[in-house]
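Listing S7. Sequence submitted for prediction.
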Amino acid sequence: MLSQVDGAPQMMIYSIPLLAISLLLIMLISDRIIRYVLVISKALGLSEMAAGFIILSIITSLPELSVSTVASLAGEGGLSVGNVLGSNIANLTIILGLAILLSRKEIALKGQSQKELVQFLFISSIIPLFIVQRGSLGPVLGIVLLILFAYFAVTVSRKTETTDFTETPQQPKKEEENIAAVGIKFLVGVALIIVLSKFAVDSSVDIAGFIGLPTSIIGATIIGFGTSLPELATTIQALKKGLVNMALGNLLGSCITNITLILGVSSLLSFSPVNVVAVQSIMFYVLISSLSVWYMVGASERLTKRGAIFLCLIYGVFILQQVGVSVFIF
């Protein structure tokens, strides 16, 4: 009995430093990843937006892909849908909000490609409504979603708005000369971020358990937020470097990838029914967050601290309602 009591503080001695070190390394490695993406996108002739959407968003969505694939193979289609929608809500609210606040500057938006990407986001955000109507996943839905992903990716890749590489003097010349080496470093860096994100989530769960937080709160906050740490780290670094198109391509592209590519793969693997009531309750926040980002990018054409705080509040209300606290703000 005494060993069990002493075991909890001992676990905390390891969990707190592990959490701090993991978060620090995630930020440092993400800075290097942004530089690698610049080199790769220049070599492939991709625009800044396309680099964010095609390269960063797909790679940083690997945690969601692994969770959804395993869930689908286990016959838990509802978990796949919940994982995708929950991740998108986190990306569009708390992740984007924190990225704007931590970049410490108001961001003016230019270019038609940003507005077009938000339109793609809104279109993809409506897709889960068909899941609600059907009440299940299936191969037909999966094929449609994968075709949509291919269409969005090809459309974005054809954009001619190029990145101004002259604004990144810290970019090593050696990396430009050896694209294969840069590609390997990029993949290794992403793999490290995913592993470190798992360490951060596990440490956070241990700390929350020691404090005495309910498992429902841990699942709704730490796990959902933890799978979005790669997006947060890379988006913050991109915004700090002034790479707004890459940041939005990464974050909004990740949301589009979640619904089209990841949910498409899950639909091909799963025929299980989905809890319609649960999806309906989450869909409200998916649409609200998508509309909020659409207004910020498409109408106001700037990302402000006030808008960032509003996005964070949406996520806060979402978490409160998920754990059973009734909040009325709309």
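Caption to Listing S7: primary sequence and predicted structure tokens for the chain studied. Residues 47-168+212-322 form a domain with the A middle domain of Talin 1 fold (CATH 1.20.1420.30). The radius of gyration is 20 Å.
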